[in-house]
Amino acid sequence: SRVSHLNKSIAEIEAALQLLLKLKVDYKGATGQDYQAGSPPAENMDESGNRSIADGADDDTVDPWNVSTTSAKGVDYDKLIVRFGSSKIDKELVDRIEKVLGQKPHRFLRRGIFFSHRDMHQVLDAYEKQKAFYLYTGRGPSSEAMHMGHLIPFIFTKWLQDVFDIPLVIQMTDDEKYLWKDLTLEQCHHYAVENAKDIIACGFDINKTFIFSDLDYMGSSPEFYRNVVKIQKHVTFNQVKGIFGFTESDCIGKISFPAIQAAPSFSNSFPQIFGGKQDVQCLIPCAIDQDPYFRMTRDVAPRIGYPKPALLHSTFFPALQGAQTKMSASDANSSIFLTDTPKQIKNKVNKHAFSGGKDTVEEHRQHGGDPDVDVSFMYLTFFLEDDEQLEKIKQDYRSGALLTGELKKILIDTLQPMISEHQERRTQVTDEMVQQFMTPRPLNFRY
Amino acid sequence: SRVSHLNKSIAEIEAALQLLLKLKVDYKGATGQDYQAGSPPAENMDESGNRSIADGADDDTVDPWNVSTTSAKGVDYDKLIVRFGSSKIDKELVDRIEKVLGQKPHRFLRRGIFFSHRDMHQVLDAYEKQKAFYLYTGRGPSSEAMHMGHLIPFIFTKWLQDVFDIPLVIQMTDDEKYLWKDLTLEQCHHYAVENAKDIIACGFDINKTFIFSDLDYMGSSPEFYRNVVKIQKHVTFNQVKGIFGFTESDCIGKISFPAIQAAPSFSNSFPQIFGGKQDVQCLIPCAIDQDPYFRMTRDVAPRIGYPKPALLHSTFFPALQGAQTKMSASDANSSIFLTDTPKQIKNKVNKHAFSGGKDTVEEHRQHGGDPDVDVSFMYLTFFLEDDEQLEKIKQDYRSGALLTGELKKILIDTLQPMISEHQERRTQVTDEMVQQFMTPRPLNFRY
Known about the structure:
The structure is a homodimer. Chain A is of the alpha/beta class. Helices cover 49% and strands 11% of the residues of chain A. The longest helix of chain A has 30 residues, at 2-31. Chains A, B: InterPro entries: aa-tRNA-synth_I_CS, aa-tRNA-synth_Ic, Rossmann-like_a/b/a_fold, Trp-tRNA-ligase.
């Protein structure tokens, strides 16, 4: 079977070559330049805003306010890596993380749910030399209703905090929500505090985590505002127009907001945690749609004397109706909410989860289903811990041995206890705990 | 002499008619509408930015960063009133202020140095009904070197504070200077504190005055930031482009800054002073070049549920070289600095103060000088308290009885003790006093 092994290798090489050629074409389409190995597209954003992510009419749309694709498999993430100029989280990186940590990487890494990064090798280099870094993630609190998709970055960030034993700052952009939505300041701030309870319920270490509302923290930290102004001095309207698609009719609050999401990337925004140090490296786990903010941040950082933040990007959590869109907090049937009862979960999955199965049991048994477009299977890739069980489900579904109803049952059995346990942990989050998490204060961590 | 009196009145009426006709023409030129008594131009700024103050190529240029005119008499302030849509401080208003206060109005009011206003009658109405109001003024601290022109709003504001017995907030826009100039945050903040000492030396009541650096106060007051965000939500890029002439190449800090200068116009930006009240009327004494900020503020105010600030506008303090330009802190010979010695004052006035006199004593005696373009005389209108003495100097200079050297001597004798006394008061301003003035705290005032 050395021959079959060789044939398989040749087939893999050919497939890889096809992908490479396709990527080169996409690269030229997105950047206007021929691809050259070892020269990634410049991160510098010039005044013409040619790093716009909104260009390319037939591409997926991915920006902080819109995510859409016409493919049932979801956004083409390989294309996105080329377009955004980030790096793929490949097997080499996942293996290295395993080696550095001495433990199995999180399933989100094993399964390509966190699929893209910037400078993660540099973070690991520093970690190996026992140099400090910290985590930064966030949430835009536009309603009390958080769904499971909102938890992805927090579940992963909690794991990072545990395995690396490092401090974490979580920004609640209540000011952003006020600027973008038809909400009052009071509503946005209220949602920030309510959402913080769900975030705390993910199990963050109170001694290593600072959660802040922009509306509160901007007015509590002259150092934070100083960094905001520094960033605002080094980004033009043309740049934010290119990056975010802002227009001249947008309010000046939206136009200047990106600096506020950028500022927590710099450690001296938190003197109570880092004692004024301005060179502690930041690692940002987030969904890929937030990358435009941090491309901008990385462009500005060296010009104001700060290190660039590193990033880990996740794919989107699909809506029940299919991977064409992100879940929407405003459509109750598009997602499983953190407040859903076991019965609601069961009904939503059975009624709304898009199926990759065939129309009849007979057809399904004969031809098998398509796990690549099946939302129940996608959800299991996010939440079922056991790799072998997941692989068996995939094969059985594809072969037709596993029916859609059976697949949905496995998902329901996975989600119901997960959500119930979250709800149980949330009831244990007291107002005093929230206040402590949200109070600027020193954190405990080594170095 | 009833006839000569009548002739004089007719001449005055004719002159006024001529001015009125000229103003109507200017009005149409500036607004595109025929003038109608009782309907001032709308303050609303639409998306086309048609309230731009930069339009009209042959007009004087007056905005927060540029003031220039081709006339040796200085900017045409009557035209500016029409263009900005403000109201003239006429004899009726000055008389009313005198009546309300029961004392002589400040020489800046008597002599038209504060020449324009918005809603001052409304402020007086409220004052007569014992309703509260407060004062707000400010300074952009771009260097340690303050000149006499910088003191004009503070001298007048101190008088207003004394006669009305009301609280005062003074904004040091160190963030603005960082955004506009090639300075570090530390430099701008340092200048804010140094300039505060000169401001305190004007004699403000420590129990009724709060001086703040934006870089400090933004990070100390969630309420201030909340108002900034509220304003930023209600002003578009198109509007600030129209009002301030910003372009797409400007940094997002400049574009959003006007909200920060607007926010102190609303009393709930200072909960420590007004206990959360959001309807205390604000009165802003400032040079006319700052009006664009407050036109914007007055446009936004009703849309976010706050009262519009009232304004009192001053003319510009002329440079020694003549009234064509504002004094410049970067040209040591263009102005009298607050640090100048008596000898420097004498030399600067004798050497650089533009003279309206004739070339030779003989000519001067015969034809007289022109006080309207004579900088020494202009300075005396700012600083010589005695109205009769000033009038006599004017007549004597015009007639030729007073020579340029003699006029300059009077000015030198007026300025030298004024500046020395200021320097003396400044040495008495301790760091503790500065810190107290700059600490957010309750202020003492009636109501």
